[in-house]
Write a structure and sequence with these properties.
The protein is built from 4 helices and 7 strands, in the order βαββααββαββ. By secondary structure, it is of the alpha+beta class. The strands form 2 sheets. The chain has a 5-stranded antiparallel sheet. The protein has a two-stranded antiparallel ribbon with strand order 2-3. The chain is elongated and about 55 Å long. The two termini are 31 Å apart. The mean pLDDT is 90.
Length: 165
């Protein structure tokens, strides 16, 4: 049974009132493929557009998105994040000149429920911001994947296959 449905099949927020407060973490990643024309501009590091520096803006947007998760995703509990870090790295350029950008979001809280949705939202919003910032150069930017890499705290722990801590 889905946890966000009551016994009649109606949407319901999960009652976490009886769960203990524990340190909880989650790490998520988004992979964004940049076309060669945009990847070339990024070879020397971050580039600045009329909207500002692409990577720095995406990092800030990711943190802001993680903090606003309960406003965006129905039935998510509002959580006070104790920490949120968004990092952006690039993989070596492919033969065709395209480049993968890897965005990682680590979210932490002391709470009664996990922070997976905050980490996933942070990575997603940062990826969308990269698209928004780069679309003036090319609309061929592709957000290839968003996934949970790891979660700790509470009763269950998760480590994605092939994920590195």
């Amino acid at each position: 049974m889905f946890t966000h449905l009551d016994s009649q099949g109606q949407p319901a927020m999960v009652n976490v009132g009886g769960k203990p407060v524990t340190h909880r973490t989650a790490r998520a990643e988004a992979v964004v493929k940049l076309p060669a024309v945009l990847a070339t501009l990024l070879r020397d590091g971050d580039i600045t557009t009329r909207k500002g520096p692409i990577f720095q803006t995406a990092i800030l947007a990711g943190i802001m998105g993680a903090k606003r998760t309960s406003d965006l995703i129905p039935l998510c509990h509002p959580l006070p994040l104790t920490d949120c870090k968004v990092t952006i790295t690039s993989r070596p350029a492919a033969a065709n000149g395209s480049m993968d950008i890897v965005i990682t979001c680590l979210a932490e809280t002391l709470g009664q429920t996990g922070v997976e949705m905050e980490a996933l939202t942070g990575a997603s919003v940062a990826a969308l911001t990269l698209y928004d910032m780069g679309k003036g150069v090319s609309h061929e930017i592709v957000i290839e994947s968003v996934r949970l890499l790891e979660k700790t705290g509470g009763k269950s722990h998760f480590l994605a296959p092939a994920a590195t801590p």
